[in-house]
Amino acid sequence: MDEAVCSATETLVRSGDDAGTRRRESPLERMFSLCAPEDRKEYEPERRSLRIDGHCTTIRLERAFWSVLEEISSDEGMTIPEIIAQVAYHCQNVNDKNLASCLRVLCLKYINTCAWAADEASSAEGRTPAASGQAPRMELDTSGLICPQPILKTKKALRSLEPGEELRVITTDPGSAMDFEVFCRAMGHRLVWDRQAACGTYVFLIKKNAATDA
User: Fold this and answer.
1) Spatial contact of 87 and 110, defined as CB atoms under 8 Å apart
2) pTM, rounded to two decimals
3) DSSP string, 101-160
4) Residue 23: DSSP 8-state
5) How far apart, in whole angstroms, are the C-alpha atoms of residue 206 and residue 85?
6) Model confidence over 29-82: pLDDT tens digits?
């Protein structure tokens, strides 16, 4: 994969007056923008020997899929061998006993299900972008940056907004949820909603407080 395509990017997109000059990234474009060179190891295959139902089995999957299985293991309170045993019992009979393929499909479906559940939860709580009554004035993509860069760039972006206008921030920093909550509380801004999307992306909608200057 070309290094220029996979380099982490930072984009600042304005809606409103500038909406006709710059378009938003498509999901595929954003996926490639998150594909930093150091993430190439996620594409590398890895063999693991596991004991499934009393039998020693060797499974070869790309590291990205092992990461998802580890996340499922943590969320469900099951070991990876227990998850694989369930997959073998429920799914393998429809795929000509290709267990690795079944596991890849499971990982993709799990990611999609988590993303759908997050959207449903936000809608149920009235915390979706539509609930704010207006489209975000600006979007800031800080993917690939780590603390404190997302907060510093958010603070700078908010300075260019008028009181009451909203900023949508995208980040891949796992610690961003607590960082943005503390930042908004300290600066008096309103964290309208936040959610975790697929592939380790975190999204925040921040409304600038009229009483502050970021």
Assistant:
1) no
2) 0.45
3) HHHHHHHHHHHHHHHHHHHHHHHHTT-SGGGGTS--SEEEE-TT--TTHHHHHHHHHHHT
4) P
5) 44
6) 666 665 666 667 778 899 999 888 788 889 999 988 998 898 888 878 889 998
Dist CA 100 CA 58 (whole Å): 10
Strands 55-62 and 45-52: antiparallel
Catalytic residues: 147
Q: What is the mean pLDDT of the chain?
A: 74
Rg (CA), the chain: 20
Let me know if the fold of 11-18+126-207 is the same as that of 44-124: no
CATH 3.30.110.40 assigned to domain 11-18+126-207? The reply is yes
Q: Give residue limits of the domains in the chain.
A: 11-18+126-207, 44-124
The pLDDT, as a whole number, for residue 164 is 87
Question: What's the CA gap between 35 and 7, in Å, rounded?
Answer: 6
Give the whole-angstrom CA distance, residue 92 versus residue 166: 48
Q: What dotted CATH number matches 44-124?
A: 1.10.3990.20
83 contact partners, CB below 8 Å, separation of at least 6: 69, 72, 73, 76
What residue type is assigned to position 71 of the chain?
E
- Residue 206: pLDDT band with limits 50, 70, 90: very high
- The tokens for 91 are 């799914």
CA dihedral 24, 29, 35, 37 (to 10 degrees): -100
49 DSSP β-pair partners: 58
Angle at 157 between CA 169 and CA 13, to 5 degrees: 60
